[in-house]
Design brief:
Chain lengths: 154, 202
């Protein structure tokens, strides 16, 4: 009976893995406030500051307002609460040949992009004592950008 | 001629030698036999008779071949297959009764395999949706009423920055939808006529 139990457990393990991941995509969504109020830079946003600096942005303060791992399902919109009484909506548009296409609507901007193991999308969507940016990062990213979820500060 | 006392014991002498009496009755008869020669002789006769019958039956049985007896009986039986649930009930009942130790060992091994195997399998696999190595922006558009236009900047490390710039230009089109505006197009001045935004400049 021992080998039967092991065989059953092995089958269950593979099955659970396959079923659990079918049709679900995960991304990390951060809301960052960039401003010139002070010089505080969240350590996890150091790479973001470097990226923006190279593109000509000279903000002195980078503050993360919220961070969460979002699970997206096909044709099902997922809403993320962002500051300034706005909402960000993410939707998994398609999943073809292992590559996911995500549609993002935040503020006045509608964006679609394909996921990759590297590369984040920074979407500027509003002003509130600075510039509000929605950062969408892959869960496979090596950059230490995402931390446990924290509620946005209004 | 049996006495009245013996007449009470005589009917019980045969079950006595066959060992079929309860202990109190057996004790009572043994007590009577210790003092009654007639009943003792009757018990001896009954034992001899029983022995002769046994020997006779054994001699008769020795003349018969019983080697195929069990097979012959089983062949005449109609096999009855119990219902599935009944078979499972019997199987699991016997398993939990007679194979408890191997069953527990198998369950522990299976649980350990699940606890180790699932994280191991999930760790090495590429997450769903991340077959591509690099992220790529496909389309960018803005709402017409917002009077903003998106500027898409592709960083060297593969990140993409989508920045909004206001266009209050009187000749601005009603629809400010811009798709995939690249850095080169912007720099060439074909799409927008604004400086790259800096901190606090908007």
């Amino acid at each position: 009976m021992t080998w039967r139990s092991l065989a059953l457990a092995a089958t269950l393990t593979v099955g659970v893995c396959a079923v659990a991941e079918e049709g679900r995509v995960e991304v990390v969504a951060d809301v960052v406030l960039m401003s010139n109020n002070g010089k505080a830079v969240d350590p996890a946003l150091a790479s973001m500051k470097e990226t923006f600096s190279k593109e000509g942005f000279s903000f002195s303060s980078y503050k993360r307002l919220s961070s969460e791992k979002v699970t997206l399902q096909q044709n099902k919109a997922t809403e993320i609460k962002v500051p300034d009484n706005q909402h960000a909506t993410l939707k998994l548009e398609s999943l073809k040949q292992g590559t996911a296409t995500i549609a993002v609507k935040v503020g006045a901007v509608n964006t679609t992009y394909t996921l990759g193991r590297e590369g984040s999308v920074f979407i500027n969507f509003g002003h509130k004592d600075g510039e509000l940016v929605l950062v969408l990062s892959p869960i496979t990213s090596k950059k230490a950008r995402h931390l446990p979820f924290s509620r946005p500060e209004n | 001629m049996a006495s009245e006392l013996c007449s009470n014991f005589i009917p019980r002498l045969s079950p006595f030698i066959d060992g079929e009496l309860p202990v109190p009755d057996r004790t009572q008869i043994e007590g009577h036999l210790s003092s009654c020669h007639d009943c003792t002789a009757r018990v001896a006769d009954l034992r001899a008779e029983s022995g002769l019958i046994r020997v006779g039956l054994e001699m008769a049985a020795d003349e018969v071949d019983f080697s195929q007896f069990a097979n012959g009986v089983m062949a005449k039986l109609t096999p009855i297959r119990p219902p599935l649930l009944e078979r499972w009930r019997v199987t699991f009942g016997e398993m939990f009764t007679y194979q408890r130790a191997p069953l527990m060992a198998g369950a522990v091994a299976a649980l350990a395999l699940l606890l180790v195997g699932i994280p191991f399998l999930l760790k090495g696999r590429t997450p769903v949706g991340y077959a591509s190595e690099q992220m790529a922006v496909q389309t960018v558009s803005t709402e017409a009423a917002a009077h903003v236009a998106p500027v898409v900047m592709q960083a060297e490390n593969g990140d993409a920055i989508i920045w909004l710039v206001h266009h209050d230009h009187p000749d601005a089109p009603d629809e400010s939808a811009e798709e995939g505006v690249s850095r080169d197009a912007r720099d060439s001045g074909q799409e927008l006529n604004q400086e790259r935004p800096k901190g606090g400049a908007l």
